[in-house]
Amino acid sequence: MAMATTLFVGGGNMARAIIGGLLQQGQAPTSIVVIEPHEATRLALQQDLGVTAHADSASLTEPVDVVVWAVKPQVLKPVMQALAVQLHSALHLSIAAGVTTAAMQQWLGSSRVVRAMPNTPALIGKGIAGLFANADVNQADRTAAAAVLQAVGEVLWVEAEAQLDAVTALSGSGPAYVFYFLEAMQQAGQQLGLSAQQAYQLAVATFEGASALAARSEETPEVLRQRVTSKGGTTYAATTTLDQLDVKAHFIAAMQACHDRAAEMAQEFGN
Ligand SMILES: NC(=O)C1=CN([C@@H]2O[C@H](COP(=O)(O)OP(=O)(O)OC[C@H]3O[C@@H](n4cnc5c(N)ncnc54)[C@H](O)[C@@H]3O)[C@@H](O)[C@H]2O)C=CC1
Ligand SMILES: O=C(O)[C@@H]1CCC=N1
After folding, report:
1. Which of 116, 161, 189, 219 allows an S-S link to 194, with CB 3.0 to 4.6 Å?
2. What pTM does this model have?
């Protein structure tokens, strides 16, 4: 029997991360094919990862079992429609933000569609992806789709497709919030007399340490925060300032905007 082949349509940042994870898990490079029109990106994938990369689907001769759609949401519709007939018998896994399974099922003329929202820590195997499939998708297809993303981290299934917009607001775009905080902490550290490098080292190690502590602890983040906070002490001075400035409410508003944009993209790119 022929080896199961995974096709990536789009070989950019996210695709490269996932391919790297699959290879590390022992999937053979000969069983991974990429369609990537940008020549330099294509050559880098071939040279660095040893996978086959084509400029377009005309040179695609391999039978494909799973297709990972990793192009920008804006171009997904025409790209899917152009390849729909050729890839009709495959399982489809899309990582495009905001594009619904209903729209993709229509463009592909296939119901075997799983939609996912990964994140960039996938680049180092520490991603987390939300997944959704409607009732048409059988267990074997769900397992196969999840396996692709488990190669680069954790997966979490959601029951309702709209919840993927919340996943986008949390973990999909979430790494950017962490980097934003790191920028702020570094800037503050410098203003308070540290070098940029010292401030950055302290900020990154604090994020790493506090995240690991939260992951291992049975306590809520609120309790963990209280443990750092002595009444009338230094942390208290910081957190009361955060509360006075209503930072939590502003942060929630930012995530709401992210969620709403994800939902809006379904209208923009999904018709
Ligand atoms: N970057 C992120 O944090 C996340 C991105 N996503 C989604 O992943 C998808 C890919 O994002 P990135 O990898 O960041 O983007 P990217 O821009 O790095 O990759 C997209 C690739 O698609 C290629 N492409 C363009 N037209 C094509 C065509 N007709 N056929 C085949 N390939 C084509 C481009 O040359 C490019 O290499 C997007 O839909 C995005 O919404 C999802 C979760 C997180
Ligand atoms: O900003 C975006 O649209 C993509 C989706 C989640 C993270 N990046």
Report:
1. 189
2. 0.94
